[in-house]
Amino acid sequence: MLIIGSTLCLDMANQGVYLDATITPFTANILRDNLMVTQDMKDEIGQIEVNSAGLEQWKYALPALAERCRTWRHKPTCEYIKAGKAPHTTEYACQFLCSCGMGVFPDDFVTGTPK
Known about the structure:
By secondary structure, the chain is an alpha+beta fold. The protein has helices at 28-32, 39-42, 52-69, 79-83, and strands spanning 2-11, 16-24.
């Protein structure tokens, strides 16, 4: 999966920090179509390697984190609603986040200038 951060923020109520970010899971469609990270992007990103158990933990944590701060509403076609759980799947190379927030970004997301 690819995580692109926009802003590091302070959460004063909980005395912590959070990263405003977007997540692109590498699904079977993305892997099949070779819509992967370009060499130019590889020079600018860090990589975290996890085993299958660690990846499954991310698949449970990310929907919970998204739910905590989302600004969009779930649609009647939501995969979480249909499955009755989030994530709706943890299968390899499958979309584990619901599609309700796909493509929804705040107006000020990634406002910095490139290097």
